[in-house]
Amino acid sequence: xxxxxxxxxxxxxxxxxxxxxxxxxxxxxxxxxxxxxxxxxxxxxxxxxxxxxxxxxxxxxxxxxxxxxxxxxxxxxxxxxxxxxxxxxxxxxxxxxxxxxxxxxxxxxxxxxxxxxxxxxxxxxxxxxxxxxxxxxxxxxxxxxxxxxxxxxxxxxxxxxxxxxxxxxxxxxxxxxxxxxxxxxxxxxxxxxxxxxxxxxxxxxxxxxxxxxxxxxxxxxxxxxxxxxxxxxxxxxxxxxxxxxxxxxxxxxxxxxxxxxxxxxxxxxxxxxxxxxxxxxxxxxxxxxxxxxxxxxxxxxxxxxxxxxxxxxxxxxxxxxxxxxxxxxxxxxxxxxxxxxxxxxxxxxxxxxxxxxxxxxxxxxxxxxxxxxxxxxxxxxxxxxxxxxxxxxxxxxxxxxxxxxxxxxxxxxxxxxxxxxxxxxxxxxxxxxxxxxxxxxxxxxxxxxxxxxxxxxxxxxxxxxxxxxxxxxxxxxxxxxxxxxxxxxxxxxxxxxxxxxxxx
Length: 504
Description:
There is one protein chain. The chain is mostly helical. It folds into 2 domains: 349 residues, no CATH class; 113 residues, no CATH class. Helices cover 66% and strands 4% of the residues. It is built from 20 helices and 4 strands. Strands 2-1-4-3 form a 4-stranded mixed beta sheet. β3 and β4 form a beta hairpin. It is elongated, with a radius of gyration of 25 Å.
């Protein structure tokens, strides 16, 4: 009886637990263990070096703190990965629940079916088709933490109570020093929330969107200062950021290739399916508009839907104004991934196409709900498939490293030379060779760790246990020509193993 009473009194807590269980089932392949390309690098250089030369240098304080804790407790990289993704699941669903709780203030839903739809819509905002890439990395927990902070930023800013702007700024800063790549989410989420909270206060809508830009801008400036301080203290150099001079050429590049991102969705989602769902939503709204007696309000809703879409696309590209590093990466397109969930939530909040009983629009309601269910299922299936392919890549990497080890052993036996060093030879404009032929989707999750120049050494040492020392010397022309012209992807010369890499 007490359990039933507790469940009745704490519905969101029950929902949260259910979502965590559901997410754990979906992401079981990652929970049971996997290796990202960056994981091989961490394994190779060690926790201390990675904290200093990557996390702190990139201004990711919480990632550095997470890895420091892992080091203090002497946790293996395998267990660190499992712990991280479990934490990520909890934090990600905390963000989902925060959005659910907020939207329930403005959308009254009494029936159980309606509450399920609302929860699943909010779920797809966070757990969208790009999010599997966030879960891929060892610091998935910290990436998820950034999403929680950005969600709280939006809630505090839109609510507009005393000191809330300052709280929003603090949350934004915490979000940026967690992970910068998801900051675009702030803009589209704030736009959604202000449109829902202030449906007819257009001035407030504009002010809130402008404030989101100011808050995010200040947060980024703070993070840049953190990076600057880290560089001076640690004596390192930031490798990802460009300068203000990059803004104009980067903007032109973004405009030119954004349509390709929308069509191909970083190869994390079937080609054109994102656009198809977007068009389907637009058609549903236009049909609904024709059935309304008071059309002005519906026109406004449609216009705001267009604004949300455009703002989402912009938000998914905002991190690229200073750098094009990782342009095709899904984790940096999180805001674009959230667009369809955002649009569905706006429809749910501002129309009767999801909730309520309306005999005249019964078929239209069914159509809207069906489209959403299909979208939800496609996201889940694609996420599972991406993880499956990544796990296959891990197996292929291990098998290839065994072949490399056998090759080294034969070479040492034939030449009486001991292979002690390894050097990466980066070959450009042949990116397709980064992927195994057995892989269907070519995305970040399916990079070969052996053919990616930042992870090749770590991957080979991880599986061969050879402990080869990385060299970064200029390769003599005759040696370089021999390597390039060889049919082998790896070739031993003297005491060095040379490895061809195609992703850089």
